[in-house]
Amino acid sequence: MDFLKKLGIEGTNPGTSTGQKFYGSGAKEKLSSYTPIDNTQIADTTITTREEYDKVVETAQKAFKEWRMVPAPKRGDIVRQIGLELREHKEDLGRLVTYEMGKIYQEGLGEVQEMIDICDFAVGQSRMLYGKTMQSERPRHRMYEQWHPLGITGIISAFNFPVAVYSWNAMIAAICGNVMIWKGSEKTPLCGIAVQNIIAKVLKRNDLPEGIFNLITGDREVGEWMTEDERIPLISATGSIRMGREVAKTVGARLGKTILELGGNNAIIVSKDADLEMAARAIAFGSVGTCGQRCTSTRRLIIHEEVFDQLKERLVEIYKDVNIGNPLDEDTLVGPLIDQDAVNSMQFALNELKKQGGEVVYGGEKLDDNHLEGNNYVRPAIVTAKNEWDIVQEETFAPILYLIKYRDFDEAIAKHNGVKQGLSSSVFTLNLREAETFLSARGSDCGIANVNVGTSGAEIGGAFGGEKDTGGGRESGSDAWKAYMRRQTNTINWSDELPLAQGIEFEVD
Hints:
With 509 residues, this protein is of the alpha/beta class. 37% of the residues lie in helices and 21% in strands. A hairpin with a 6-residue loop joins β4 and β5 (41-46). Its EC number is 1.2.1.3.
């Protein structure tokens, strides 16, 4: 396919890179990538060996010594050039995201646009790595704080956003003076190869050293090399709660730092005072977009009993009109799940729901229609449920929307917060008191809380992340840059005396 060629994707691709150089073309162990569209093989990528991994880390350590001394605005200019290069390859990279991951082409383009947006944001941030000046109690002393890069930032990303989440970390970490080692998902390795090829053009053009943007490829074992490695002070990991607990334990044992973006069990409260049509449109995208495989996907719908039936019927109407099929086709709104394991996980969840007394209002079945070439397609499901059921408490990475009734707003908030995850949240209401209550300290306990906006589709200007079992990390905008740096407090004595703080007298002869 032409877009693969333009992105430098070959039949077999070296999966280890220090930026301008790639390693592993002769390695025997390979990782095969299959498109979920029809399960055909796209290409192979070599798996990073332990020897190659250590070479990457050593090269990154060497590059850091040089990169950290480049003025931050100059580092920002490199990121600006990466953003320009991404613009040139937006359509091809967006198509690869769709082909390898399965999200519709519009979402593939949107993911690359997120990369471009974070590059633009990072360029501005490179001139705003602000510290503070404090007032010293000692005469003719100056106190201030400044921020320094940590070193190597290890980035572990997931299949559902195979390029954007990497860029949230990498571009901000880069302008802070860090160097990056990226391990993408073993389900989408070609996206990592393509991004590395794009970035390599900028690095070569500017005659920069190897080791600033690095790539490794492999399964859980390769990721464990990173989390156990004391040479990597920060690990930013996106994935399941189970994975996050292991990462936190391993990195914490060596007193390293983590940014964790883990599971979401996101809910929308729909008030009797809501604009129901607006709510329905937001719910539809949040629940079926990316075939329910976003960490911010809408999974629970907490609806006031007075409008429950009306909204349920409207959602069924919308779901019936959703086109399911090849995500590269323009009229498709829902593509396939990532693989057969995801399909089986959805069927298991629906069976558990029925056992607990829930009803499948619409959808949920596997689709084996003749026009669908693979077997990873499902019909998004609308079901009735109770918030406390075990299956509702867990995140199923598939398009299942749980409909839950409530009577008063305090009950709605209690149900909303009554799960262990805390990523994204929303309320649809035209009632000012309900809106402000939801955003107050007694309202949503999530890292993201919206009013009359769905749970899915965050902008890069705000810090992205969640609370509770979602991990507590923050990426992307606002002051998330601070997580990639270390704070240093400085005191300068420009007097000819040596007074001590707190007025302590300590005279020596």
